[in-house]
Predict the structure.
Amino acid sequence: MITVRVPAKVNVQLGVGGLRADGFHDLANVFFAVALGDEVTASAAGPGEGVTLTCSGPDAAVVPLDDSNLAARAARLLAARHGLADPDVRLHIAKAIPVAGGMAGGSADGAAALVACDALWQLATPVGTLLELAAELGSDVPFALLGGVALGRGRGEILDPLPVTGTFHWVFAVADGGLSTPAVFRECDRLREEAGTGSGDTDVATPDADPALLAALADGDAVALAGALANDLQSAALSLRPSLAATLRAGTEAGALGALVSGSGPTCAFLAKDAEAAAAVADALRASGTCRTAHATHGPVPGASVLP
C-alpha cells in the first residue's frame, strides 16, 4: 500500500491568450502549490479486478469513480507505458481539494496516482517520463507532480520552476457547487468578443509573466505579490457566478492583502500577511455567509510525494 500526498494550486497570475485553432489558449500561468491537498492510496488488487476507485471527504459524493477520473486514467496510462496489460489496482482518494473549484484537484489526483502506482509496481519511472505522461492526462497535471512555484506556458504544461523566498499565507473560500473550466474559457472568449477586442490568437497578444510578480515571489514580499495578483479568467467566472464578488469583498474587508478567483473558480483565494491574519480572514469568511467554508493554509510546498 502506497499513499501519496499532492497539493492544490492557486494561479497567482493567469494570463490567457486568444483562442487557437486547436481549441486551446496560450497561457502565462504562474502556479503556486499550497499545503491544502489530497491523498491518494494505491494498493494491490486481485487478478482481474482491474482499476477500482473509492473516495472519502466533504465532496466525495460528486467525485466520479469511473474512467473519467484522472486517477484511474493515470494508472492505465502508466501501465501501458510499461507494457503492463489490464492493471489491477485499488485507488482511494482522500479528498480535501474542492471539486471543480479552480484548484486542480482532479489533476492533482492524476499526478498522485502516477506516483503511487509507480511506487507500488516498483517501476522506477524517470521523472521526465512521468512529466510526459502527466501532460498527456491534462494541462495542470505536470505541475501537481512538480509543486513549488512554476511558470506554465503553452496550455500550462510546459513548466519552468521559479525562485521563491519564504512562506506565503493563503485563505481559500470554497463556494457551493463548481464551475466548468471549459465554460469559463468560453465565457472569457464571449466577453472579449462583446467588448470588441476579438478573441482569437491573432487578436489577443500572447501573455507573459509579470516581472513585478516574479520579483515579489523571489523577494518573499507578500504585499508586493498581493498587488500583482492577476487572473484573466476572473471576469468570466464573475459573469457566470456573480455571487463571487461578495466573497472577494468579504475577504478583503477582513484584512486580506489581496484577493482573486483561483483559476477558473469558483474558489476564491486571499493572500494574508501571516498565519494569524490568515486564520482571522478564514474565520470572517466562514461567518460572512458568502461561501460554504474557508481554509487557511500556506505554501509553497512540494509536488506529489510518497508518505512514509
The radius of gyration is 19 Å. The longest strand covers residues 25-44. The longest helix spans residues 105-120. The CA atoms of residues 188 and 194 lie 10 Å apart.
